[in-house]
Amino acid sequence: MAYGDKVIDHYENPRNVGTFGTTADVKERKDVGYGLVGAPECGDVMQLQIKVDDDGKIEDAKFKCFGCGSAIASSSLATEWLKGRTVDEGLDIKNTQIVEELSLPPVKIHCSVLAEDAIRAAIKDYKTKNGIAEDAPQTAEAL
Amino acid sequence: MPVSTPIYMDSAATTRTDPRVVEAMLPYFTEIYGNPGSRNHRFGWESEDAVDKARRQVADLIGADRKEVVFTSGATESNNLAIKGGAYMYEKAKAGSTGRGHIITGSIEHKATLDPAKRLAKEGFDVTFVEPGPDGVYTKEMIENAMREDTILVSIMWANNEIGTINEVEEIGKLCHDRGVIYHCDATQWVGKMPTDVNAANIDLMSFSGHKLYGPNGVGALYVRRRRPRVRLVALSEGGGQERGYRSGTLNVPGIVGLGAACEIAQHEMGDEAIRLAALRDRLEDGITGRLDVVQVNGDRDKRLPHISNISYGFVEGESLMMACKEIAMSSGSACTSASLEPSYVLKGLGVGDDLAHSSLRMSLGRWTTEEEIDFCVDKVVESVTKLRELSPLYDMHNEGIDITKIEWQAH
């Protein structure tokens, strides 16, 4: 399968690879939201971690990904887009935007869906840890 | 010597045609172009002579009589003719009824065997798809246990195309002959690589293809036994009655000449070639398994073809690994590159877990594979797996002592 230039760029130079500590540490830390989505038997697992400052702003994001080039690119892109947003603004990121940015073909759309799921899972984890209502109102654009 | 990339490590998919084969074929396009069915003129006679010579070259390679060689377009057609043509000939009840006869094949056979067998199952035959053991090998016992009173046909390949494992063909053939059951063997990965004797192996029908043995594409053969027992088939392609009526259609003379030439070269060279390729294969596997943890060579290490290596890499995904190793032309153990995202049914059939079956690569060696290329592949694969494991959340979990099979994953 031929990949788009942006997929290849993210795949060869993935942004923000890493973690904010061991899995056990990160699960305890209140300033970090942890999302783990996908399944090994489906060939994709994404792990996304967001580090949130006192003002509710995502100051850093890290990912790791077991998956194809498009899955790696989708999660790498997600970390770039998350940085600097508030957690609620993070929820504005939609899989369709990822598909568009990376020019993903139809068979790879599930990679972008997984990236969106990872974002939601990480933000949900952060909110749960900090006692913020999960159903916080979303922005108009998101709806 | 520096290697030139991309490196071809997909000879089990198709081989480069040997230039000596091309040389042998060339006159049959523009100089000797008669139809071998034309019995009234020199053009036809010369083509017929060429086909006769090729038939002898093919027969010699497999220990057959030349009258037992039916030329086809390739192993897929040969398999279809053997399995469907054999089933229709030896059926126990007419079309339209059930109980037309029992057929045994393997669950990790090539699709060109599985799909004809599934077709027959829809048409009133009973088909048993036998599962292999975890080593990927089919034994005589497995087939014996599946045998029934009404078994008419067994189709078990000589060696598997994805993992290279070699089945107990001689013993399975003997069992079939003792029970009066027709034995078909898909020997596409075997013929021209390993010594073949259809009589010693008790084979009744055997399929193989030109392009897997350094011959041209679009030509293959079906061996059809003529004595003890005399095997007959219902033709699938009808018309001019060529190839003893089993396969109508004007003969592909240049292709047949090429197949014959490829068989003759193989007969002289395959002995040394197998030794050389096995040593290179071992160098490849030892190099990779010596430098990476959590890797698994799939299939029995000994009962295996010399030129096929299939390795699973834990915690990295196959398609991204192929992308990282773009200088190496190889095949993903999973069909991830196609629209279907299913892991390899062959590896799943061996009991390889879905996670590892997703991360498996087949590298297959050929006549022109060099030691330098093997060393390049080892370095590239090791470097790529290491890089991808730095990205892999699963490898982190493994190193942190988390059992990933215990996590409740959300299948999607």
Describe this structure in words.
Chain A is of the alpha+beta class. Helices cover about 45% and strands about 20% of the residues of chain A. Chain A contains 6 helices and 3 strands; from the N terminus they run H-H-E-E-E-H-H-H-H. In chain A, strand 1 (about 30-40) and strand 2 (about 45-50) form a beta hairpin. In chain A, helix 3 crosses helix 6 (about 110-130) and helix 5 (about 95-100) packs across helix 6. Chain B has about 400 residues and is of the alpha/beta class. Chain B has helices at about 20-25, 25-30, 40-60, 75-90, 110-120, 140-145, 170-180, 255-290, 320-325, 345-350, 355, 370-390, 395-400; strands at about 5-10, 70, 100-105, 125-130, 150-155, 180-185, 205-210, 220-225, 295, 310-315, 330, 330, 360-365. In chain B, strand 5 (about 150-155), helix 7 (about 170-180) and strand 6 (about 180-185) form a beta-alpha-beta unit. Chain B has a 7-stranded mixed beta sheet, with helices on both faces. In chain B, strands 9-10-13-12 form a 4-stranded antiparallel beta sheet, with helices on one face. In chain B, strands 1-11 form a two-stranded parallel sheet. Chains A and B meet through strand 1, strand 2, strand 3, helix 3 and helix 6 of A and helix 9 and helix 13 of B.
Kindly state the mean pLDDT of chain A as a whole number?
Answer: 91
Biggest sheet: strand arrangement of chain A: 1-2-3
* Alpha-beta content class of chain A: alpha+beta
**Computed Rg of chain B:** 23 Å
Principal-axes geometry of chain A comes out as globular
Give a brief rundown of this model.
The complex is a heterodimer of chains A (143) and B (412). With 143 residues, chain A is α+β, with helices and mostly antiparallel strands.
Task: Please give a handful of descriptors for the protein shown.
heterodimer, A: 143 residues, alpha+beta, three-stranded antiparallel β-sheet, 6 helices, 3 strands, 43% helix, disordered C terminus, B: 412 residues, alpha/beta, seven-stranded mixed β-sheet, four-stranded antiparallel β-sheet, 13 helices
